[in-house]
Write a structure and sequence with these properties.
By secondary structure, the chain is an alpha/beta fold. It is built from 4 helices and 20 strands.
Length: about 190
């Protein structure tokens, strides 16, 4: 059996080297595509915008809208459900799969960070990295400036307050906020 590539290791949640040439090329491709997307003038043809997002995003639902500027590591590991919306300045570190459910809305400057690093300083110094998937359910609203960490799942119909730091799973149908984010009430 062949040894796993660094990309396969990354997507499997194993230690990987981001300096791998294949991964570096994939990130460069994403930078080029996001630069083009972010440069679209107001009023640019929707079919052109959609085609460019189709090149960048791994799974692209219908009627998805990303306000520029938008930034991501790879794009190919992002899944956006029908009607998903990201406001200005959102960042997605998609070293693992990042799934945003249908009708979900992200406020400005929301960060979805699947990337992480070893906690042990000696191990971290070796340059190896980790990633864990993020899953955001259907019809979730995440307020501006919130940060969602690696390995987090946010349940359907929940609301995350602006500026929250989400490092643990949030159940469906709740309002949650804070740093660290915690459930405030059920819906």
């Amino acid at each position: 059996m062949a040894e796993a590539t660094q990309r396969e290791r990354m997507l499997a949640g194993e230690l990987y080297l981001a300096s791998d040439p294949e991964l570096m090329a994939a990130r460069l491709r994403a930078r080029e595509l996001t630069l083009r997307y972010n440069g679209f003038p107001p009023g640019a043809a929707d079919d052109e915008r959609r085609a460019l997002l189709g090149e960048l995003i791994g799974e692209l639902g219908d009627e998805v809208w990303l306000e520029p500027p938008f930034y991501c590591d790879y794009g190919s590991n992002i899944a956006l459900g029908d009607g998903a919306y990201m406001n200005f300045g959102c960042i997605v570190l998609d070293c693992a799969r990042v799934q945003v459910g249908p009708l979900t809305k992200l406020g400005p400057a929301v960060q979805l960070c699947a990337a992480t690093h070893p906690v042990d300083p000696a191990e971290r110094a070796t340059g190896w990295e980790l990633a864990q998937p993020i899953v955001i359910g259907r019809n979730v609203w995440i307020g501006g400036g919130a940060i969602v960490g690696p390995g987090v799942t946010i349940g359907d119909d929940s609301v995350i307050g602006a500026g929250s730091v989400v490092v643990k799973d949030i159940p469906a149908r709740v309002v949650a906020a804070g740093s660290p984010c915690r459930v405030i009430r059920e819906l």
